[in-house]
Amino acid sequence: MPRWLNHHAGWLYSPLLLYWISEVSTSAAHSLEIAQQYDLFQTTLDTLQKSRGFLNFGYNVARGQTYEDRQARLCLEVFKAAMIRRQDVIIDVGFGSGEQDFLLARTYQFAHLLGFNIASRQVRSANHRARQEGLTHKLAFRLGEAERLHGVADDAADVVLAIECAFYFDRPRFYHRAATVLKPGGRLVVADITLSDWLGRMVRGRPGLRYVGTATTNRAAWEQHFHTRSVRRINAQTWTGAQITVLQILRTLLTSTLTQAERRAWWKLAREVQVMAVGLSMRLLRYDLLVLAKGR
């Protein structure tokens, strides 16, 4: 996009962005609200008996991909970047329905995975599925915050994953805690959405920026604890999936029997994702695949 067009688009887009930041800020200050929202999402997935219950925008590589194939591909891109080994102990924060971790168990050899999520229904659902599929020796899911990771010892994990969820976290606390639980040389791999630096300056001082952040402020926060191995910008592969997500939500709302609470939760998500889709397409938001390493 030409610089002059990006500049004017930013001024037009900023009111929408402020709406998104206010939503993230409110949710971040009230984790119960987030938990309730994602519990409602899980209720819908259970009711509809979705064969694959991913909760991400997906990653586009070719025409003809289904929506679920795109979503699986995003997870596979994260797993590949994490360089997962047979002996690795993995922590997955904000795991959603757990679909991504069952995909991981089907495609990679690793020692054990412990997932953390603040939505109790999603935790129960993922643990139930692990029992059904005979994977309790491999996968376990726990109720808890990414910034705390209760019960995990220092230097216990080889890999920490965060797929499309870190904008809900208090990032400085999350980076600190991830570094604490990782072994020396351990990897933190994040599929992450942030503000562009230019747009961040326009909304400086908003409370939600501690959670959403900008490319520069986030890097400053993680580099207090990690070495940066790679930062790969993936706007081009993800923004269309964000737009498709909105269409998928609208289709679900029109064709499915949902409770009023479920409808409100999905409408709210549709509004937020539409703002993000526009921002990603105009590069006013960044979607990066980050690979960070703890020092030895």
Any overview of this molecule?
It is built from ten helices and seven strands. By secondary structure, the chain is α/β, with parallel strands linked by helices. Helix 6 links the parallel strand 4 (157-163) and strand 5 (182-195). The longest helix has 27 residues, at 3-29. It starts with a helix and ends with a strand.
Helices, by number, come to 10
Shape: globular
CATH architecture: 3-Layer(aba) Sandwich
CATH class division: Alpha Beta
Percent of residues in helices: 40-55%
CATH superfamily: Vaccinia Virus protein VP39
Number of strands: 7
Order of helices and strands: HHHEHEHEEHEHHEHHE
How much is the average pLDDT?
A: 89
Number of domains: 1
How much β-strand is present in the residues? 15-25%
How many strands, which pairing sense, and closed or not: the largest β-sheet? Answer: 7 strands, mixed
What is the radius of gyration computed over CA atoms, rounded to a whole number of angstroms? 18 Å
Unreliable sequence segments = 1-12
- Tell me the CATH topology: Rossmann fold
